[in-house]
Amino acid sequence: MVATLHIDGAAYSVKEGQNLLQACLSLGFNLPYFCWHPAMHSVGACRQCAVKQFKDEKDTRGKIIMSCMTPATEGMRISIEDPEARAFRAGVIEALMVNHPHDCPVCDEGGECHLQDMTVMTGHVCRRARVRKRTHRNQDMGPFVNHEMNRCIACYRCVRYYRELAGGRDLDVFGWHHHVYFGRQVDGPLESEFSGNLVEVCPTGVFTDKTLKGHYARKWDLQTAPSVCVHCSLGCNTIPGERYGELRRVRNRFNEEVNGYFLCDRGRYGYEYENSDLRLRHPLRLGAEGPRPIPSAEAVSYVAGLLRNGGRVLGIGSPRASLEGNFALRALVGAGRFFIGWPERERALVTTALRLLREGAIRTPCLREVREADAALALGEDVSNTAPMLAFALRQCAMQRKIKVAAAFGIAPWDSDAVRLVGQDEKSPIFIATPCGTRLDDIATRLWRAAPEEIARLGFAVAKALDPDAPEVPDLSDEAKSSARDIAAALREAERPVVVSGTGAGSPAVLEAAGAVAAALRRLGRNVQLSLVLPECNSAGAALLGGGSLAGALSEVRKGQVDTLIILENDLYRRLNAEAADALLAGVKHLMVLDHLANATTARAEVALPCATFAESEGTLVSQEGRAQRFFAVHPARGEVRESWRWLREIGMAAGQSEMAAWQTTDDLIQTLSQEPGLSGVKEAAPGREFRAAGQKIPRQPHRYSGRTAMGADVSVHEPPPPEDRDSPLAFSMEGYQGQPPAALVPRYWAPGWNSDHALNKFQGEVGGAVRGGPAGVRLIEPAADAPARYAAEIPPPFQPAEGQWLVVALHHVFGSEELSAHTPGVAQLAPRPYLGLSPEDAQRCGVGEGDPVELAVGSSVQQLPARIIPGLPRGLLGLPAGLAGVKVVELPAGGRVRSVTGGPP
Amino acid sequence: MEKPLTKMMRPDGEPLSLGEYEAAGGYQALRKALGAMTPTAVVEEVKKSNLRGRGGAGFPTGLKWGFMPKADRVRRPRYFVVNADEMEPGTWKDRMLMEGNPHQVVEGALLGAYAVEADVGYIFLRAEYAKAARVLRRAIAEAYGAGYAGKNVLGSGWALELSLHISAGRYMCGEEMGLINALEGRRANPRNKPPHPQLAGLWGLPTIVSNTETVCNAPHIILNGAEWYKGISRSSDGGTKIYGASGKVKRPGLWELPMGTPLREVLEEHAGGMRDGLKFRGVLPGGASTDFLGPEHLDVKMDFDSVPKAGSRMGTGTMIILDDHTCPVGMVRNLERFFARESCGWCTPCRDGLPWAAQVLDAIEEGRGEPGDLDVLADLCRLMAPGHTYCALAAGAVEPLQSALKLFREEFERHIRDKRCPWR
Question: Among A62, A642, A842, B52, which is least packed by CB within 10 angstroms?
Fold first, then answer.
């Protein structure tokens, strides 16, 4: 419904019922605000967005109203420029400034501060207050977020974000009147894995990025480019910033279909591995005295020589490497000799997930659709640890019910406090079944803790309760039957149900069960979607590319069929246990490894080639949604570091593979790989290198970038030309198109008068909504419209805890389980120490106390770990942290034995 | 002259027991209502009586009670809350009513709860009122014992659970929506309207909040009828009002007088006029958050429509009188310090404007004032005008300030000019 709104005498069409602030901002007006946020909506606290409202044409006095709290109605007359309204808005800033320190020059927020922008916008320039400013004590909030309370203007966004959106409990408002204090009860790391968003949510310098503080640069001095997070499978959009060849921070890049306004802390803070001392900077050749640097040309010709001389070569790619890197390796070694480099179980899981999405009739939702879902079933996957922004999206899904209840009272969805007041404890039905407690449990309507097989059985039982044609689950307990009926009833009633699962439980049966629930709902004609979490940032891309598992590679090696093994961005010692990895590597004569960080695999390499990270290269990742997204180099790779595919191309060309010569740029490579089945959309993920906006490239450096002529002067006083970017329409320069490029190419948010990230408002058609020109990325996987719903034939038997028999399951940790981010100091600090988790009942039965050393044996792998007692973990299950440094690699779930080291065998 | 609210009270001000209250006609109104009147009839009678809310805003009580959604039988429990968080500086009328006749408060609460078909009632009491807490607690227990409250009130089938809740002790808890938040155990921040509490109040459920003095009127209206109630008033607002006077008058105190009694009559006849040697300079007619009136307004009728015509508000009807030996700047500073301290910190003008105003007044009073200070104060008054802030606290808080700036302009300027307070 459209309403005509008269603003300062001119008529505009706006969405009826939308609040005036959002309407005015969407129309392009500069109206200042603080407490309002497009993702958090209106509460009317700061009074900054006041405008004048007139009753009719004759009314000349009008009255001051808060635009954020007032719905637009047909024929409404308002004024933004009215002198009294302007004076009021300046007065609000003046009141805020009574206590705000004038420390902008030493404040990390300076130059991208919403408060600065709004102050300038209102025209408040002169301090009249002769009063002492109130001061506060700051808190140590851990490695990610710096706290400087004196700067607080009490907009309440932080606590609203942290508590209402992110579900955090340890940040609150304390005190009263102008001493209100936003912090924790005591100093200590913020507990929410979404704490970093405080940095962007805070309109001034109270919450700032502590990692940036460690190597500070102003926003205008950062070279930035559009990028994609590499720390889980969701593919959140980011804007990393670089200066002096070092990554300084990561900010959110708005993609309404993916991460919206927010990132998780692993994604925001995991970047520091890029600057790590573990970076490979030169080609290394392993000699008797250990690895020594060799010239690039020597490295290339050596490896090419191995290939050219008829050497039998095998390539192992990686689910954390780009499509381009994997494709180049496959082209170099040949499709039949290319293996993705994941264990067989992981390959089976990922291909099962992809089969469900590609062959079924069920759509995989983007994160926006999860946020907007009105019921959810999470089967087996601890999304709070494996895909945090999916957990965040489910939190918003839980809110949908409140919004619906409020709508019945005529309350608009943007009237945030009213929605919560009327909604009270109402929440969308969300069912969570996982082996262990998750940080999402507080939003669950009901919870189940069970072994993966039991979770799968619950899922199949739900499918059966929905659809009589679904297979019967044998030996189902009455309790499980009744649970299944409850879940089925709630999902059946929902308008937009979503089923969430993933590879995290390590169980194909869990995935099949999730697929069965979705298929059953689909057969009932429900608009159901299925979101499956995958292990890594390009697991989906790797699976689309095809290629066997490590088991296949190992069998080739065992057959003595391999002289040379080339491993791309893959530490096999994280995927296989040490014996298996040793066996694989020892079976080949020559080992060549491409990676950016030194690891156990590069340490074994005869030749190790330093390759570019996500921030130094361009490439494509396919998220668990099936969305192909392009990341662009933030800064050029230095020295001998280069993109994996360029190394592989040079080797290939030197070895006589002349077709690789055509790959002059990333686009050429993408052109070739887009010929592959299922990958034709990849070239649409972002505009190609030829793209120009108004005839110009998109500059990575802001127009205020300083020190350009001086920053290299310690080396040479001659200013070198800016590095050329042959691969993309972006330039390593200040010069170029200053307007809004397509979403996939947006390097930063800035607009005149809007130096903070709120400049994003100017990039969106409707503020809070889609970026003009549509979201970045292209979906490669769409459901087959008329595919019949299929049910897996095999339903696992019930899990029975037995004496002396344990099921070891993987427990994922947002900090510590992922390979690359674990090399970031802050993430490492928050990662748990190694442990073996067991239920309180089992611990008591075994006489094991918290921290007691226990010995875990899985197959031939034996390790000693301190016990951690985990309430809620089902009896008979042991929890082993996944991917954590100091924990031996074991393929899970698996049967195991445990023995108290101090006491006897339990 | 009829004094329904206070006539039963003992001369020593000690609380009436249940027996004493019943002997004096107590709980007859409740019996009458439950026996012969529908809730709607009770609301209609209160509407006809022209009873207006005694908390300060003067909203017609019958109208407010009638807002409670009648048809909604699903969203339960419904709540009726007596606002006994009397924290307006210079106001202690509710305290007198509670301490002297707690059963009148309980009966009023029960009638209000019956009228709005509530299931649960709360008396939300100011934390500092220890004696009122003691006597109310006992009165509620006695009312339960006598069957006036509980699962089946007087055998009528209507159930009401009534409890006393002691506030955490902030001015904001007396604001209707702040009170509701406080009752829920949250910060006593106000809430935006809509949704109004009758739609989504306590825990999101239908709720009515009425002031203590207001509900004390209900039994008398029900028992004696709306016409009688209107008849005992000297104005179009019905009934009597507990007026009060503080400041340097001869006999500070509280008096139950017909609604609409002129200010001069309260001041001169009941409070005995100014103390010897002092002259009247101004009055805050209804507590600290009302505008000053000067000597030219002494003949104003103290009711909800007349006082605004003179440029102030009736407020709580308990006036604070300023004499010529007291510094008006110092008095306003005291008030603004109070209000600045009591701001909840939610909206900017109130949170940051009031302390600034208080500090400017500090400077003026302490001889550090500067010529531009009065402009700052005037600007702050505009910043905190009605509708500009989230709730009415700041708008009320600047009423004494903005009126003092007009009425006592010369005194402010003298402070600044002479760099000292002439009264010190």
Answer: A62
